[in-house]
Amino acid sequence: PFLIAVAFFSCKTRKAPTMGKQPVSVYPGFLLSLERTPCYGTCPIYKYTVDSTGKADYLGIRFVEMEGRYVKKLSREQMEKLKAALDKADVYAFADAYDNSGISDLPSSILTYTTAERTKKIVCRMDCPAAFRNLFKELEQIVGQDGFTKVPEPE
Asked: What residues does 45 pair with on adjacent strands?
């Protein structure tokens, strides 16, 4: 009787060890970057990046409330809103650049959008269409600033 019990317990199936939960991609290949560059004055300088798993990274450089690096996880709903806003605005129809190289004291708004199929980068410094400005603002509002956690600076 003792040997049978040992044999029974030693044949129990074991779960394979896991290396941690892998984030699930909501939109494979999705990568969104929103960036504001400096001017000669006090223009806010920062960059948001959102990957296909909803991981949002924010880097506040100067003249912003949140300076430093921050991270948060966007909800599926927020990811769907980002994708819908980009699709609705027909981001690929915008020119690659709106600029006047003769004027150097203007900040840029840079939107880079990558999908599994292609990448579109729009640099907007001057004479930006209202549709682009509205899209940029909408995307920033969807990502928001609430819920970010500061990443400690390396020593």
From this structure: 62
